[in-house]
Design a protein that fits this description.
- The chain is 70% helix and 0% strand.
- By secondary structure, it is mostly helical.
- Helix 2 packs across helix 4, helix 3 packs across helix 6 and helix 4 runs antiparallel to helix 5.
- The longest helix has 15 residues.
- 28% of the residues are buried.
- The mean pLDDT is 83.
C-alpha cells in the first residue's frame, strides 16, 4: 500500500529526534494540555518500544511517532496552541492502532502506573 509506505518512510525520518530524556521532557510539558488519552497513548508507545518482543518495523514506527512528538517544528509547529499538537496526536493514535497487537497487559499496566505517577 503506497500511502502506508509513504507514512512509514516519513516516520523513519523523525526517529532520529527520539531519546528517552527528550520524550519525558516533552510529555511533562504537554501532559496538562493534551489530556490523559493522549498521554496514555504516548506511554503505551514508550513501553512497547522497550519490549524485547517487538519487531524492528514496529519499533521504527514507534521511534518515528515519538520523534515526531518531540520535534517542535513538524507539520503544524507545536507553539501554535492549541492546534500545534493536533498532528502529533494524530500520529500517536495512528501508530498505536498499527502496533496494537504488540501491546501486552504488562505494557498497559506500566502505562497506567505511570499515569498515576503523573497525576492522572
Amino acid at each position: 500500500m503506497k500511502g502506508l509506505d509513504d507514512i512509514f518512510k516519513k516516520l523513519e525520518d523523525y526517529s532520529n529526534h527520539y531519546s528517552d530524556s527528550k520524550f519525558w521532557k516533552k510529555l511533562k510539558s504537554i501532559s496538562k494540555n493534551v489530556g490523559k488519552i493522549v498521554v496514555y497513548d504516548a506511554l503505551l508507545l514508550f513501553y512497547t518500544l522497550k519490549s524485547s518482543t517487538v519487531n524492528i518495523k514496529d519499533k521504527v514506527l514507534i521511534y518515528g511517532a515519538l520523534g515526531y512528538l518531540i520535534l517542535p517544528t513538524d507539520l503544524i509547529p507545536d507553539f501554535f496552541i492549541p492546534l500545534g499538537l493536533t498532528d502529533d496526536i494524530a500520529v500517536l493514535i495512528y501508530v498505536v492502532g498499527i502496533i496494537k497487537k504488540e501491546i501486552t497487559p504488562e505494557i498497559e499496566n506500566l502505562a497506567k502506573q505511570k499515569m498515576v505517577e503523573l497525576g492522572f
